[in-house]
TrEMBL record:
Residues 48-98 are annotated as: Disordered. Residues 70-253 form the DUF8175 domain. InterPro entries: DUF8175. This is DUF8175 domain-containing protein. It comes from Streptomyces dengpaensis. Residues 82-98 have a biased composition (Basic and acidic residues). Residues 48-66 have a biased composition (Low complexity). The chain crosses the membrane at residues 24-43. The keyword Membrane applies. It comes from the Bacteria. Keywords: Membrane, Transmembrane, Transmembrane helix.
Amino acid sequence: MLNSGRSRGGSGEWEQPFWQQRGWILSAGFLLVLLVLAVFTLVTDGNEEPAGASADPSPTSSATPDRGGGGGGSDARPAGCRTDDSDQAKPAKAPADFRWKADGTGLVPVSKSAGPLTYDGPVWSCYAHTPMGAVLAAHSITDHLSYPGWREVVERQVVPGEGRDALIAGRSQDEDKPTSGKADAGGYAGFSVLSYDKEEATVMFLLRGPSAGTYGSASVTVRWQDGDWKLAPDTDGTVYSGMAQVSGTSGFVTWEA
């Protein structure tokens, strides 16, 4: 889901508009976020909202800068990870083998062909080196940042550097989202691949609003490193960008029920 949330404290950040609040960007609970997007109001309660992050099971390279430079790492896949990377076109539809998989109280899209193919506790990894693999990695990694085990996800599936350090600092101040309860597909309505090459991809999520026909959008960047896709936050730890209200599903690939 979205980033992890920060407590109110005395910083005054909860008095700022929601798009300026680090706690909103680092939070858990898609419906609350979408409600904010739909009505464009201030966040005035302490409920946590969606959290986010991208994934990779192999050790990260500390020499790789946060958002610039760097060749994106080696193409060498982790042991036992093999995917069909032949389809380099931006997807026009969801994979035929797409399904929802529970992650705590949320449901995340997964695919046997595009990933993740490996499940190691909270770290879901081994994605196809394709635009569709980048889409699925963006969903899974960001969603796992809300739950217990988020630190392992960050260490293994977030590009190292200033942005990762800032993400850890902010997320450490927040409580984990409960893992018990009925899983709900909630906010994930569709996606669009804004940009892609074999080194980096930017994926826009289409999120359902609190009432029928209302939607919000948010973009996430992932980078290919150490043989898998990893989340690439901004230097201040921000995972999501381009958050906005949208009028419908036009321009997005929708997830089939």
